[in-house]
Amino acid sequence: MANYAIAIATFLSAAFLYSLANRHHPEHAPYIPATGGNAPLKGVVNEKEQHNNTPCYVDTDLIKTLGYEYAGYARWEIAVVQTDNFSGFEKKLDLPVPSEYQVLKLNSPERKLALPAEYCTSNAVIEAPIPPRSRVDASSLVFGVSTSLERLDESLDAFAHWAAGTNTRIIALVDSQDHWSRVQRRAARMGINLTIIKSSEDTLDRYFSLTRILLQNRESADWGVIIDDDTFFPSMSNLINELKHYDPSKSWYIGAPTENFAQMSMFSYMAYGGAGVFLSMPLLEQMDESFDECYAWKDDGGDKRVARCVYMHTDTKLTWDHGLFQLDLWEASGFYESGRRLPLSIHHWKSWFHTDVVGMGKVASICGDNCQLNRWRISDEWFLINGFSIIQHSYPVSDKDLLAMEQTWDPSPWAREEGYTYSLGPLRPMDEQKISFRLKTATEDGNRVRQIYVLEPPEGNPDPPRVLEIVWRVMNQE
Description:
Protein name: Glycosyltransferase family 31 protein
Structural class: alpha/beta
Signal peptide: 1-21
Number of strands: 21
Keywords: Signal
InterPro entries: DUF604
Organism: Aspergillus wentii DTO 134E9
CATH topology of the domain at 141-320: Spore Coat Polysaccharide Biosynthesis Protein SpsA, Chain A
Distance between the termini: 74 Å
């Protein structure tokens, strides 16, 4: 029976890996927006008319970082009224569907190009909460990550979004301390309380060692949180508020399984590391009593070793917090564009599916944390997903359709679509002809945030990319 079980497991693993290697790559959607056909492009902005001190301009330096020589340019201006009486965002924004694009010449030395004043007139006005005077206190959390020094350095900008100035601590176990002081100093400049520890252990052993290190460095923390270097928390305030539902004086093992039922059947029902593994201090104390035995389970991955130790040496079971996401989806645009509650955590943002989470978070300074990934309807087909994309569906999308998440990723092996409904449902089919402007960069500019969304032409198409800039500005600070 044991050999039979091993054979079945081997077959399932091979089939699953084959499905990943051969996952579906959708064809490019049509490049030209469908509003009135191929929208005419206006002339190049006259460089003689550009003035660096004009109140209405294109920040060409920002667009030049994307490597374009020319770009078709359109713009939305959204004014934000910050108020104590904020009760939620409206579902629709009264914005004009872009129909014409000004051609920008970007291979010139000018840093700003003047625009006609009408470009900078507010297209829409929204209300948003007044931002807090200080960042949330997250001293109740101590985070641990097992990674390389290079990847740690690459993650600091993202870590700063949720950790900087919050009194939380991050302990990083790395395989090398070459130039570690540079990374340490950079983190300190960003307001991140980071401790770097060199370890000769392999990555998975270091991962499990974090259970002891977090306990030994608990100080005033109630929770030890093990993360991957590509775990991202869009809102530390939301995370702290969510943890208030759990009594930290009791044993808690909190996290999220993979969204893919077939994958979970292979690797176990457990807290997957990318979503964040939240361990209360009483549970860490229990686990530490069996540390040596659990550490010796070399056949298990880091997060699975943690799960096995919890399950075999305590009576604590996984509490699935549905705001945490492992995001084992590859093509995850449908997840980001779902318009659902802002996730507490997301994963794989710099590997399986590249997402500019740092750029996504910039707009929070203007319209609040929960403005990130908020979905507004622009028309029957057009939608703005704040900090991620501007999309045009190939058909009118009803409010009923919007209840379902667009499944932009492949069906789960064996379980097909139902392999994801248990975690993400309801789902709707992918719109293969959807047009998508993706966020490429964003920057804060005084009381403004500038977002650059780009529609890339298909490979071989000589037309310039299309840039739709959104300028968010605080109206009651002008």
